[in-house]
Amino acid sequence: MSVQITADRMADIARGAAILGTGGGGDPYIGRLLAEQAIRRHGPVTLVGLDEVPDDAVIVSVAMMGAPTVMVEKMPGGTEIQTALRAMHEVLGEEITHLSCIEAGGINSTIPFVAAAETGLPLLDADGMGRAFPELQMVLPTLAGVSTCPLALADEKGNSALLRTVDNRWAERFARSIAIDMGCRAMTLQYVLRGDQVREALVPGTLSLVERLGRVVREAHGRRDPVAAATEVLDGHLLFTGKITDVARRTTGGFARGTARLEGTGAYEGRTLELEFQNENLVARRDGVVVAGVPDLICVLNSDSGEPVTTEGLRYGFRVSVVGAPCDPRWRTPAGLDLVGPGYFGYDHGYVPVETSCAS
């Protein structure tokens, strides 16, 4: 059943999306403000389930591409969505009927609300990952054989570009280069899907999940442990609680890359945890041993409030809790692991499900 999303619901959606975004997907506060402003100006957004999408529907995913650290200082100018839409319409030859999220994240789950409000198009209650990943091809539509092209990119100056590539990895390579030239931040439209493809190619119920996740964290304040509340919704596992003692971060190749080191507190006193990230958290090592890694989710939360801490928000002295949670089961297949597993990111350890590593 479709629902109307009003501006007052965006705070919970942005919060939950940033948690599910595993440190990436953009700043939740910026994403929330953009979506609230668009909805107040243009009206509520219609959110529809995958079972409501006609087989002949034409769905396009909307997302920001670039380094999250840049997006904090360089907000969208307001014209990029329409510029990208015009470029996409030139080559598509038919009307877009629905929009979707390609990933969960503070901006990339809220920018589609901006686009839906501006265009009046319904938004799917789904996404292409069930989390966030750093590269364009790292989506379930790739596993389903769907091309990311035609792919439209646009910047705040009015520039736009259209890509057609031989495969989705080449699309990532070329689009990343263009996004860097656009200032390490570009609006993208990608992965044109038909209605009869969405049930195979997307994760159902993502936006409902992130709203629920954001709501339980908010409602837990002063009543129960918000980190425990979020962990329960994620069906996750507490990996560590501690203080950030060192962060090394750099923006290179259009990504925010780095490491963060934590020293344990409470039950983890005397222990350490190291996080490595590329926009999103990729691996967590506790006392030198991997306890969680891609494609499973590694979420960093403020220990007191349960609010998400993105990779660009990691700071010395922050008291945080690190939660691991299982990914969509499709990522655990051989094809999924080939696309987003530890080996793709250059790690020599094999993939072990987070629930297995936490049980050992």
Automatic annotation (TrEMBL):
It comes from the Bacteria. It comes from Actinoallomurus oryzae. Gene3D superfamilies: CV3147-like, CV3147-like domain. Transmembrane segments: none annotated. InterPro entries: S-Me-THD-like_C, S-Me-THD_C_sf, S-Me-THD_N, S-Me-THD_N_sf. This is DUF917 domain-containing protein. Residues 167-354 form the S-Me-THD-like C-terminal domain. Residues 10-164 form the S-Me-THD N-terminal domain. Signal peptide: none annotated.
